[in-house]
Amino acid sequence: HRPHRVGHDLRSHRLATLGRDDDAEREIRLASLATRTDVDPYDEISIGISVRKGDFDQALASAKQIADQNVNDPYAWLVYARFALVMRARLLSRKFLSESLDADQLLTEATEAIEKASKLADTNAEKSAVASSRISLAISIGDKAKIEDARAGMQNSNLKEADRVLLEAKTLVALDRVDDAVKSLMAVNELRPNLKTQMTLVRLLRSRNRGADALAILEQAFRQDPNNPQIRTELAAQLVASGQEIDWDQIAKLLNSDQAVTEQNRLVYALILASKGSHYQRQQAVRLLREMAGSPSKIGLGASRVQAALMFDMASKYDDLGKSEQKQFDKQQYLT
Predict the structure, then answer these.
(1) How far apart, in whole angstroms, are the C-alpha atoms of residue 278 and residue 86?
(2) What is the C-alpha separation between 279 and 334, in angstroms, rounded?
(3) Is the pLDDT of residue 226 over 50?
């Protein structure tokens, strides 16, 4: 049987992206400070923590235990396959040594887990997750023939077009055909725009130094969904990175003054003020960070740390300030 999962649609959506590396490759990661859901039926968070701590054997054992306890759940097997591939990559890069883990055995384990998931997959979301995992497997071993086979197989699949196009773009990128991937996604976005396609396009356009095109896609996404906090963050970050004079009123509306902004958006706004603003704007950032630092969330903790670092940095640059700036700036308060 499959485990009881409250809010299943949300987590299925997240797990259906197995094998995708959008977040890891995203040029601007300011949105990553958002808190994650507490509900985690596949133990991905605790497994990920084990990986970050270097307890790789425990991470893999935990993922395998989850799969063994949920033998009829394709997502459980795909989670295990993903972590097996992560462990294999780290072994091959000599980032860690293990007497109990072997790279060839890990590849076999990942392959078998994906095949088990394939036999269990019923829904389009599950089939898409399996296809993505197969592509990740081919990419991880650098087998371009298998990548081409996976791409050809998608052409005849019954995947939803949006999922198929995104997966095909992933294969094209792996085959060093980024421009072809961009062209394909651009065509789909013109006919049937959606957020997944747009965010993938933005990532690829940034990788090709096509900032103006990335900005146009983000502006399109914002028109479609102006209340989406991720779009607001990405759009503001792209505007700041454009090289043009910063329109601070526009950035403030996106990240601070509009009713739709979130705590996460405000933290990003403070970071932009701190890194790109004038002395007085950096003081504004300190005030914003102080307000957010009282929150018990991860955002509050992050704001507290940034506030302390920013205040120390501003105090250390006191001698670089003009006389009028020094007159209104309480250096001692910032140091204490």
Answers:
(1) 43
(2) 13
(3) yes
Q: Any alpha helices (H) in the chain, and if so which ranges?
A: 8-15, 22-25, 44-53, 56-69, 74-92, 103-120, 124-140, 144-155, 161-174, 178-191, 195-207, 211-224, 229-241, 248-252, 263-276, 279-293, 298-316, 323-328, 331-335
- 3-state secondary structure (DSSP) of residue 235: helix
Q: How many angstroms separate the CA atoms of 18 and 280, rounded?
A: 44
Please state the separation of Cα 15 from the chain's center in Å: 13
The pair of three-digit structure tokens given for residue 77, joined into one six-digit string = 């097997």
The answer to whether the CB of 271 falls within 8 A of the CB of 306 is yes
Rounded to whole angstroms, the Cα distance separating 145 from 62 reads 32
**DSSP code of residue 254:** I
Looking at the chain, the whole-number percentage of residues with pLDDT higher than 90 is 37
Using pLDDT thresholds of 50, 70 and 90, give the confidence band for residue 218: very high
Long-range CB contact pairs, 208-214, < 8 A, 24+: 208/178, 208/179, 208/182, 211/238, 211/241, 211/242, 211/243, 212/242, 214/238
- Residue 22 burial (C-beta neighbours within 10 Å; 0-12, 13-18, 19+): middle
Q: Which range among 26-35, 59-68, 201-210 has the greatest average pLDDT?
A: 201-210
Write the DSSP assignment of 53-68 as a string of letters: HT-HHHHHHHHHHHHH
Which residue would you say has higher pLDDT here, 333 or 206?
A: 206
Q: Which amino acid is at 140?
A: S
Determine the pLDDT at residue 163: 78
Contact call for residues 238 and 218 (beta carbons, < 8 A)? yes
Residues of the chain with pLDDT > 70: what percent?
81
CB < 8 Å & 24+ apart, contacts of 156-159: 157/127, 157/131, 158/124, 158/127, 159/124, 159/127, 159/128, 159/131
Largest CA distance in the chain: 72
Highest mean pLDDT among 39-48, 129-138, 148-157, 192-201: 192-201
